[in-house]
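2024-03-11 09:14:02 DEBUG pipeline.ingest accepted 1 chain
2024-03-11 09:14:02 DEBUG pipeline.ingest length=296
2024-03-11 09:14:03 DEBUG pipeline.predict start
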Amino acid sequence: MATANLRKGYLLGLATFSIWGMFPLYFKALEQYGALEIVTQRVIWSAVFGSLVLLVWRHPGWWRELLAHPRRLGVLGISSVLIAANWLIYVWAVNHDRMVEASLGYYINPLVNVLLGMIVLRERLRPLQWLAVAMATVGVSLQLLMLGEFPWISLVLALSFGSYGLLRKLAPVAALPGLVVETWMLLPVALVWLFWFSSGASTEPAFWTSTDALWLMAAGPVTLIPLLGFNAAARHLPYSTLGFLQYLTPTLLLILAVQLFGEPFPVDRQLAFFCIWAGLAVYSLDAWRIMRKSAG
């Protein structure tokens, strides 16, 4: 792989995961609208913006191929529900000062992927992968025992995003067309909720003449731009390298939570995180060892 392409891949990867890690700054600016209203607008404007991008950045034949495999449409229907649930819990967590738990969820996510691969795809875990999963389990158990609370936000985020990734693997559709189809599938639900059940500011016609409306409309580009960056980075970097870079997102999320927004991060919670981090270190070591063996 050419050095220039690798450099480009690293820059795109760092930019993408940094943007995802800084998402709380955007959602905190919108917290007066409520998580459900924000996610509804995110669906609407992601569908609109994504469709416009598809008109410019064409993916020849993707629609015909999708129609030729109707099962993939069904899978995208399920994955759309999972990504909507992930968005909703994430935005709710950010705007209710639960960002530390959200960051834990995205640290756990790679290890959840390993478990899902074992359970659903019948993949066999290597000894170091078993050790990594065991360490993560200890970390989650410590939070339950020492803090007396079940880390439901962390687990729902990890399971919903892990399951989403697994379904997208089972229904191979390019990332941008896939997300556009998912948002269009969610669009009727979003519009029904917005016009019949919501009493939020965005249901008032006068709202759309204000500058505040631009913040909600920005949810489309904010969602899709890092996705496009991720896909571009994936083309220039080994997948294992991309996997290591993904830890940047929950790390930035944790730093923002503790340093900027003052969320508590007591010693007992730090111990739970340490177990997760140790598990991720073992998981990364195993991935690096396998990569070296494959390269040799």
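2024-03-11 09:14:41 DEBUG pipeline.report The CA atoms of residues 78 and 220 lie 21 Å apart.
2024-03-11 09:14:41 DEBUG pipeline.predict end
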